[in-house]
Records
---
Amino acid sequence: MPDLHLYGHPDSGHACKVALALSLAGLAHQTTRIDIWAAPESRPPAFLAVSPFAEVPVLLIDGTAVFQSGAILMELAQRFAVLGGDTPEGLRRGREILMWEANRIGMCLPQLKEARRPGNGGLPAEVIAWLTARYEIDRQNFDRLLGDARFLHGDAPGIGDCAVWGYVQWLEAAGVAPSPAMAGWRADMGALTGMKTPDAFFPT
Ligand SMILES: N[C@@H](CCC(=O)N[C@@H](CS)C(=O)NCC(=O)O)C(=O)O
């Protein structure tokens, strides 16, 4: 079993995606919490040496660094044949959901959440309205992607579910609401063995 070491922070939905995948797949790993609110240059040298943009998440696999949450999820699915990675169809589904999430949900919910963080200067009202309108389209499309299934990968969760969970776990903090189907999916995700709070994923 390779040595796995995840750098992340509980406020990072991108890091939570990877922590959730490791947990659901039962892959033993170490974590190091990186203070993403501190100046990048003040972060630990060992982390700065492996993270090209000083961002989390980074996963070390036997000392080899992989960055970008979607790339890490694909690496885990393929290398360990987990979370959809055990079949060509599951891998394809994972790639499709990951690309969609990164281009859509990942381009509005993080910004909406950050705009409402206490102490943040916020964003102009018209920017909030534009991001919210984008999210509302994403919510409709989530419902289409889920269809009648329990998870985005079907009967069991896959890397696509982990990717979407990253920021959909925080809809209320972003000032938006789930569709009924999305609310049901969140409840099912929340009940999974292996689901944890962000703080539990990245203990101090
Ligand atoms: N596209 C990247 C996004 C990574 C990212 O934006 N990480 C943020 C936290 S969510 C970060 O490390 N911010 C600290 C900084 O930029 O200094 C991914 O999918 O991993």
Note: The chain has a mean pLDDT of 97.
---
Amino acid sequence: MVNDLRNCPKCGRLFAYQGRNLCKKCQEEEENEYLLVRKYVRDNPGATIFEVSEATGVEEEKILQFLREGRLQSKGLAAALECERCGKKISAGRFCPECIKEMDAQIKGIIGSQGSEGKKDANIGRTIKDRMYTRETDRK
Ligand SMILES: [Zn+2]
Ligand SMILES: [Zn+2]
């Protein structure tokens, strides 16, 4: 295995990159923050990002990141996320279900009508979907 050494963007320490751009220590910290946030959201359904941030001490930006990654889902927090394509309020991920459907159809259309160029777009589509749906199972 090749050791891909990087500087942790959070604490600046050198670490061996293994799929996540954070050192082990910061990853653990993030995991703890995630568990804190998840617990609070479960106990306090309908809480706003601000409230969750106040109660858990986790940065709002971090909570948004959990939402964007689709790890965290809450109706109360939903209002903070917007579809990157149409701006509609969504509860998880980066796009609303309608846009996902439309993009899916577009990707399929491209594959149907074009050659290698379409394949590239299909890969982009799959990456988005992988991020949204298979994040947990994808982990190694
Ligand atoms: Zn670090
Ligand atoms: Zn949308």
Note: The radius of gyration is 18 Å.
